[in-house]
Amino acid sequence: MRRLVKAEVPLFLAAAVLGAGVTLEHGAVGHGGALLWGLLGLILAAIIAVAVRISHHAEVLAVRWGEPYGTLVLTLAAVSVEVVILVVLLQGAPNPTLARDTVFAALMLDINGILGLAAIIGGLKHGITRYNLDSANSFMAMLIVAIGIGMFIPDFVPDEHWKAYSAFSVGTMVLMYAAFLRLQTVEHRTFFEHVAAVDEEAHDTAHSPSWLHGAIMLGAIVLVGLLSEVLSVLLDAGLAGSGLPKSLPAVLVALLSASPEILTAARAAAANRMQTTVNIALGASLATVLLTLPVIEGIALFTGDRIIMALTPMQGGMLLLTMLAVMNNLHNGETNAIEGVSHLALFFAFAGLVAIGLL
User: Fold this and answer.
1) How does DSSP assign 330-357, residue by residue?
2) Residue 35 confidence (pLDDT)
3) Where, by residue number, does the polypeptide cross the bilayer (predicted)?
4) Which CATH architecture has domain 2-355?
């Protein structure tokens, strides 16, 4: 028990930061300056620490359950963090494009950032890294259709019909993800597996029961939601009249939720387990679209306020380049550092466009 409590110190510290944030948020908003940004940075650090602990417990379950259940748990945990933060931020200052920008930023980070970095790490250490081609094809088949239904077609739906189309897209995406989960874990499970060394469960030396890892993970997700309440207030105050990029909140949400995935994917690539990286990068992208969009569209239907999900021309162009790069690079079951550089270049282009306010 003592070992378990010691391992969860980051969660206790995050809870203390939450208490300090609730106490100081109004004073920080009124005072502004260093106090506001210092408290905001502390809240962000706390959310990242909690997200890393969520990732830890998801990884323990991943080792115990094996592929594809392992990375499925990890991606669902990460997307849960993203949805919780996003829903909380939507209750703050009006931002009808926040959900769209967050999903877009998550796609750029998952596909170009994670996949690119992992391919470079794996390529430099092992030369050529291998994965199951069927998994990449399956992910991309679902992802292209999901993005089309959720983020391209809405641009052509007139205001008088948005509720009907929104209800259709919610139902379609839920059915798509349910079907994908069934096929991924039963009929086509072998698509998402690849022969590789099995991890030792060294990071769970206490050998705690699986239900305990699941319970702590759920509690940590709730803690993220509470921290996000404070983050929303501070972020709205900090960005008001600051001149910072308008898409910064969306990028922060995507980065906070993906931070554990980045570490896991990098470790997997270094251990020559590219299949795990592919499952994480493309699986998280698919889960982001098929799980986040229905939640946000459901909120829009409930409130009666349309949320803009249609991509801008710049976003559409970046996404098209990303899809072309993925289809070209993940076409033969092998990847290398050169292919990783191409994805990372697209990620840097995304980051640069955000920095100068064009995305």
Assistant:
1) SSSSEE-HHHHHHHHHHHHHHHHHHHTT
2) 87
3) 34-52, 72-91, 103-124, 136-153, 165-183, 215-235, 247-266, 278-301, 307-326, 338-358
4) Up-down Bundle (1.20)
